[in-house]
Amino acid sequence: MEVVITADTIIKAAALIGALGVILGVITTVVKYFSKQKALLDEVHEVRHEQTLLCYCVLACLKGLKQQGCNGPVTKALDKMEKHLNQAAHGDETFEL
Question: Is the pTM of this model over 0.85?
Answer without folding.
Answer: no
